[in-house]
Amino acid sequence: MDAKVRQFVELTGSSEQHARFFLESNNWDVQSSLNSFLENGGGGGEGTALEEKGEDIPPPQPQVTERLFGPVRGRRRGMMRPRTQTANSLPWSSNKRLAAMYKPPTEMNYSGPIEEAADHAAGRAHWLLINIQDDQEFKCHMLNRDIWKDPGVSSIIKDSFVFWQRDKADDQGGQFCAFYDINDFPHVSIVHPKSRKIIKSWTPREAVLFNAGCFAKSLELFLEKQAESGTDPSARPAKRRKVESSAKPLERQETEKAMLDRAIRESLEDVSNVPDAKISSAASGRDPIPRDQTEVPERHESSKSRPGKSHIKVIPEPPAGPNTTQLQIRLPSSFDGKRIRRRFCKSATVK
Question: Where are the alpha helices (DSSP H) in the chain?
Answer without folding.
Answer: 2-12, 16-25, 30-39, 46-53, 76-80, 96-101, 114-123, 138-142, 151-160, 171-180, 212-229, 240-272, 281-284, 291-294
